[in-house]
Fold this sequence. Notes:
By secondary structure, this protein is of the alpha/beta class. The protein has four helices and five strands. Strands 2-1-3-4-5 form a five-stranded parallel beta sheet.
Amino acid sequence: MENIKIAVQHRESLYGAAFAAALAEKWKGVSVQLVSEDCRQSAAEADFILCGNAETALSMGSKGIHLYDDPADLVSGIASICRFQPFSSIVGQLRTICGDDRRKYSMPSKEGKE
């Protein structure tokens, strides 16, 4: 079974790096990479691109997922996830968007056991 490949792009590079690391830790079996502001180069390699900018996410077509701060920034026609919620909720929403809502991949429990 192949890993789902997710690219993370965010204007705040420290946040993007922390988000990518946490996602890789919480969702075993997913490949996560941090990409630059111009993430179009990585679009061919990634299954999904999580973007901090709605226009960038929209330009990625069905691969684009908007990681938004303010509901006023939502754009219809693209998958969107609010970044201000528990990380377990973000991972659950990503699993659903990425077609992994059957839990094919494991998420560690709070004790760190799978």
